Amino acid sequence: MSDLDLRSRLRPGSGPAPGPGPGSGLARLRPRGRRAVATAVLALVAVVVAVLALGLGDYPLSPPEVLHALLGGDGFASTIVLQWRLPRVLAALVFGAALGASGAVFQSLTRNPLGSPDVIGFSTGAYTGAILVITAGAASAVGTALGALAGGLATALVVYLLAWRKGVHGLRLIIVGIAVTALLHSVNSWLLLRAQAEVALSASFWGAGSLALVGWPQLVPAAVLIAVLALLVAGLARPLRQLELGDDAARAHGLRAEGTRLALVVVAVALTAVVTASTGPIIFVALAAPQLARRVVRSAGVPLLGAALVGGLLLLVADVVAQHVTTTPVPVGLVTLVIGGAYLISLLVAESRRTR
Known about the structure:
The chain is an all-alpha fold. Helix content is 77%, strand content 0%.
């Protein structure tokens, strides 16, 4: 089997799409009902894991104690849950959902499971922006966040322009993104080598990606921005599905393909950049969540809501592992790195078996 055939099999939606039976309304309802049930189960699992996560720590709490605190109970348990643990748990859910939705948009646009902000270089570009700010001496939280946001958006602009050839196509966007990522890794290493030891250490810690420093002051503005961006993604969901059919089919439906694609890229990059600005780069969630959601929901395309739920659940579980399973707490970005590596290996093994 040629590489082209392999790529076509890697694309979401390349398998047989569930279609309605001849004249059967029930055949159309069954897949929708199955997706709705799977989405509801994902949301329920996320809530259960969040309650369990709120009870973990040096002062363990049972689920009833956690629920009592969440429902307005007072006392020391309420302080632990509402002030200490809830911001981090909510941050994991919200930021993971943003990364999952961003990955779903890119994988739908590129029609390739490797079409992720991590692979295309936007997270690395955000890290570059943060390093530039930190090494310039403006290492405040706001300065670092703005630097990361500017770096991610600038990288997206460069990748988009370099990939442009009378339009932007998925595979070219990924290849250009991988090349830009490699270049930015070199730039980041050079900047860290030239920086003072304590500055380089601070930048390296930020680059590992951690939820440890996220409290209500950091979570609230980021969550508001993500909510606005999520509404924009929801508004562009229908044009995104039309683009999945191909540019010619989308134009036949009256859609301005390039303008819509650019708007989707900007919104998806902004979702990744907001998360990166708040926590540092957390990779592989945007890569793995859409494909895991597609398998759970059993959807022909990449489900946006399912990817967001799986992304939130994945990041929350990874943060629990980072805090409580390892011998000493580690940044959650290191845990997602391990999970992502295992996911990539499993994906390659599965595709290798399928193509034999």
